[in-house]
Amino acid sequence: MSLSTPPKASFLASLMDFPRNVWKSIFRNPLPSNDLERSATSFTNFFLHIHPVKVHKNSLRPLYTFGLGLISFFLFVILIVTGILLMFYYVPATSQAYDRMLDLRGSVAFGTLLRNMHRWGAHGMVAIVFLHLCRVFLTGSYKKPREFNWVVGVILFLLTLFMSFTGYLLPWDQLAFWAITVGTAIAGYAPVVGKDIQFLLMGGTSVGQEALLRFYVLHVAVLPAVLTLMIAIHFWRIRKDGGLSRPEDADPVISLEAMPTVKASVLEPKKTYGLQGLVRGPLTKVGEIPDNTVFSWPNLFLAELFTFVVTLSAILVVSLLFNAPLEEPVNALHPPNPAKAPWYFLGLQEMVSYSAFWGGIGVPTIFVLLLLGAPYLDRGPGGVGKWFSRDRLLANTIFITFVVANIIFVIIGTFFRGANWAFVTPW
Amino acid sequence: MRIALAIGTFLILVIHGIVFYNQFGHPWERNQNTYFDQAKVLAKTDTEKAALAGRKPRIEQIVVSNFGETRFDRCTTCHIASDDPRFSSHAEPVKTHPYSPTLGDTQKNGKWERRHKFSEFGCTVCHDGQGRGLDAEYSHGKDEYWPDPLLGFTTQDHWRKDHAPKLKGKEYMQANCAQCHTDVDFPGTAQVNRGRQLFFSNNCYGCHRIEGLSDGTIGPDLSDVGRKWKLDYLWGRIADPKFILPTSIMPKFNMKDDEIKALVIFLKSRKGRNFAETEIQRFKVKLTGGAELVQATIKPMKINPGEMVKQGEKLVLDRACTACHKLGNRDGGIAPDLSFEGQLRDGDWILAHFKNPKSTMSDSIMPAFRFTDDEFKAMTAYLLTLKGQPTPATGEAIYKNLCLRCHGEKGDGQGPIAERLDPYPRDLTKAGFMNSKSEARLVSSVRNGVNGTSMPAWGKLVTEEQAKTVLAYIQTTFTKDPRREIKARAIPEKNPVAYSTESVTRGEALFVNRCAGCHGRKGDGKGPNSLDILPKPRNLRNAFFVNSVDDKRLFESIQYGVQGTAMPPWIDYGLSNNDVGDLVNFIRSINPKPKGGQNAGAIQ
Amino acid sequence: MAVNLKRTSAEDSEGGRTSRRRMLGWLTGAGLAGSAGLSAVSNFVFIKPRATYGQPQRFSVGKPEDFPSGTRAILAPRGICIVREGSKLAAISITCTHLGCTVGAADTGFACPCHGSRFDQDGNVTGGPAPRPLPWFQVTLAPNGEIEVDKDIEIAPGSYLTI
């Protein structure tokens, strides 16, 4: 980092230094040992520079976030990697798809494990994304200035569901075929454009080769691209909206009276990214304000690494212990009885069994619209950054009611429905 | 934190190690190495030994494209010695596939030659199983989701424990032989042929359709049943129909195990792509309902006019009539008792009923069997001789003997065979109904029967006195409500509205508006509400019934309702005499006029 | 908040703690690196198919009687030419060693239609750009009396199976 002109190096010396220089050109900083280098590590590394140099202590509280957002992201990464690998052996053709599943299970090395990881990872991602959504809602984190990021998050949740839905058809087994037949039929109930959407999804009048190809393209190209873009926006907005939400009393109260000489820029305690300018230039002395932030290196990065390790080991252990189901090959004339959707859609299926429009389109649409509109309808300033804040009793109650209702429907659909969707008791 | 992190990464490393380790040392590699080692011992020449030394374990596969979709059979990866005659006395999986003349294999100079070469046929074409699997559990089809486990070798864990042992045996593979060897008398598919005969001789064809063989419509179509279901299900449905599907109406035929086995093998061979039956033959089945085929398979009996009754008896007993009907102490528990048939019906009725059951009873579920006319005549002659026991004296005994089978022990119309009857037997516990009808009407129902229903005319067995006795017994035991005088009602003797197209149109509009909810838009008694109603709404297209009742009776039922049923008194809902007249005209219009003769109503 | 530029922080003064941290760091790093390495290897193992979807490499071509002496039978779908001279039998590849075209039979042996390589009857290069002679595959007489060719095993040209 010295600004003085380097001495003319002899060719031999350049050759001697070749490996070190290559290394240094890639990793510009040594392992940091002081605060300056700690900050430099964060913002000179491509993979780390999306992080702030310093992070608020509140954001690192495990019991505040449970790391849910991060777990979702890591699951997404695992799914991308395993998904790309699976694509090497998959053929989106009705005559071959199921056989390729058998090959993955039988003759391909690591095929079973990768398929398990992809399947369980997908289930996990749906669950964790939903829990993340619950966390953000119950801590009131969607409030100003994070309204738009909340909207992006809800869209990400829907994309995750759709991603999972499109992936479901690909094994071309009975479970897949009938779940998709039912799912696309539900789309057909949407007003005005429903039939067109159904036709576009299936590429025909029934689930067949065209539908398989379309779902494949959606699953491996369109949706991952959109999802990646939205995740990028989601992350960028976290920084721009001042990091994770935190209660108001987590920041020091700055009394202007007591610190008359403090520069105005410091009064924006949420603006952590300004530090970059600070460390680049000549040292600037700023006010001695009590500080609740810590350096990202190593505190944040270790936490993230830990989350990643936990996520990966959980997925690996589950994939080693349980095999992803593969039912009978498709028989278009003979649905299994009962024909059940994946668990996260069973709430929907249960509701659909009462009314196709209200269960499949009406209620979910209302729920999604309420979610999207929440930050604009609920403008009360209180209760940000605290779990189950008393200030947000009404909003939280409404939300929990919806969630619990859905969970009850899922439980009924999973355990209490037997042949012909008749009510059965599991004991 | 850092300790946890270190432990976590260590855990991941361990898991990776396990995963990696799992990929090596497959059972099939061990099997192949065993084979190589033993073959080296058996090898006679050095070149042979050298060739073996060069071989390393790898996945062997046979690509078969001659039979439907291309199959990849990797069975020879483990069963690597299947075509090496030197291993005939070794243990599976490194064992020679047996040679046998029944498979078409031939022996030349002491060396066997296969008729079905593995390189052309693969393995799964004959054996089923999952050709792509590489461990025994999956490739043999142990996995409960795999539709074709090794025929006759592999049973799946969820199969019924008492059936599973019976589902093993080489003979099950004949089902697959019959995919190509479709000749009826092919010696290699003896079990399939036996099953085909049983299919006809046990009258399965009466209810079930198999493309090219039969056209029954009461039970499910069995044309591709072998592709849809596994052995366990087929066996279970034949041996004990209600165990798998409690609502099944299929009779329990009480067949011996070897008969069930033959039937199962025959059914397993029906995969919807059998080409035994030529197009012309299929077309004939469509035209005649397969009568010729049935008669060709089960050899009709030559009827000798002098022995008609005796031969008829033999036929009735042989042709599984008692799988449904009751006769003496044989009881199928599905259809009415035939013990008094000679007293209840006349010969013409019985013969017509045999030839086409619906021609004498609109909603009969009895299939039309494809016997010869002579056989039907002999069976009729035999049935006419059945007079049953003399009618007992007490009301209770009469009821138990004659009425209980349909009307039930409690008199609630839920007798053992009630659910197969359409219309349902009357619920005699409903005081509202019993007391709203005059005694004369009830006695008439008993002695003259109710046309178009399963209630026969008991007149020859039950005198008027006896009818009254049994009615009194019913009244005290089931109805439990003392008879009351019936109020006189203002019912027109004749339909006040003349029959005309306009009247029928008005009646239809009214019917759709008021009646269709229960009686159905077509008047067939199958409206949306009918599911929840007992007794079921009347089928108003049952011409035998409708034509047997007069306008007054229809007026009474519509205007004043039928007590004890869901039929309300429509007079309370504003139907005038003229409206009811229109309705009656509409109901008459959907039932063809009798043209004389007993079976007149049959022409629909 | 002050930016600390000193190389030592308060924690570093406790030597034992530092070395323990270092060790844990190394352990973590080793674990991660090991897993990453294993995953990378697994992925290559994964994408290398163990069973292909083409015809098998080892196959039977029929009985010795099917190939009378003097036969030079080109089995195009299998990619081999069966040569029989007297009681000697061999299988020669018909895939050109230059750039993989299928060679055709010529009076003098084999000729490649793509770039003009020429081979003699034993597959030795006699002209054109082909760098190597056509390979010979192992031929064995299987125990059931049929001739088996294994395209995975190349043998020295000129080594025949004697029947």
* Shape annotation of chain C: elongated
Question: Uncertain regions of chain C: pLDDT < 50 for 5+ in a row?
Answer: 1-13
Beta-strand percentage of chain C? Answer: 25-35%
State the order of secondary-structure elements of chain A, H for helix, E for strand.
HHEHHHHHHHHHEHHHH
H/E element order of chain C: HEEEEEEEEEEE
Number of strands of chain C: 11
Oligomer: heterotrimer
- Average predicted local confidence, pLDDT of chain C: 83
Indicate the low-confidence ranges of chain A by residue numbers.
281-285
Indicate the overall shape of chain A: globular
Helix/strand-derived class of chain C?
alpha+beta
User: How would you characterize the largest beta sheet of chain A?
Assistant: 2 strands, antiparallel
**Distance, first to last CA of chain C:** 92 Å
| Residues in helices of chain C, as a percent range | 10-25%
Please count the helical segments of chain C: 1
- Compute the average pLDDT of chain A: 83
Protein chain pair with the most extensive contact, residues per chain: B-C, 36 and 36 residues
Q: Top keywords for this entry?
A:
heterotrimer; A: 427 residues; mainly alpha; two-stranded antiparallel sheet; 2 strands; globular; C: 163 residues; alpha+beta; 7-stranded antiparallel sheet; 1 helix; 20% helix; disordered N terminus
Helices and strands in order:
The complex is a heterotrimer of chains A (427), B (604) and C (163).
Chain A: H1 11-26, H2 35-44, E1 54-56, H3 62-65, H4 68-87, H5 97-106, H6 111-138, H7 147-169, H8 174-187, H9 194-202, H10 209-240, H11 275-280, E2 293-295, H12 296-321, H13 343-352, H14 356-377, H15 393-415
Antiparallel strand pairs in A: 1-2
Helix pairs in contact in A: 4-6, 4-12, 6-7, 6-12, 7-8, 7-10, 7-14, 8-9, 13-14, 13-15
Chain B: H1 2-22, H2 27-42, H3 46-53, E1 62-64, E2 71-73, E3 106-108, E4 111-113, H4 118-121, H5 124-127, H6 136-139, H7 174-180, H8 190-201, H9 204-207, E5 209-210, E6 214-215, H10 225-228, H11 231-239, H12 241-244, H13 257-268, H14 279-288, H15 291-298, H16 308-318, E7 326-327, E8 330-331, H17 341-344, H18 347-355, H19 373-384, H20 395-407, H21 431-436, H22 439-448, H23 464-479, H24 501-519, H25 543-548, H26 551-560, H27 577-589
Antiparallel strand pairs in B: 1-2, 3-4, 5-6, 7-8
Helix pairs in contact in B: 8-13, 11-13, 16-19, 18-19, 20-23, 22-23, 24-27, 26-27
Chain C: H1 15-47, E1 58-62, E2 72-75, E3 80-85, E4 88-93, E5 104-106, E6 109-111, E7 118-119, E8 125-127, E9 136-141, E10 147-155, E11 161-162
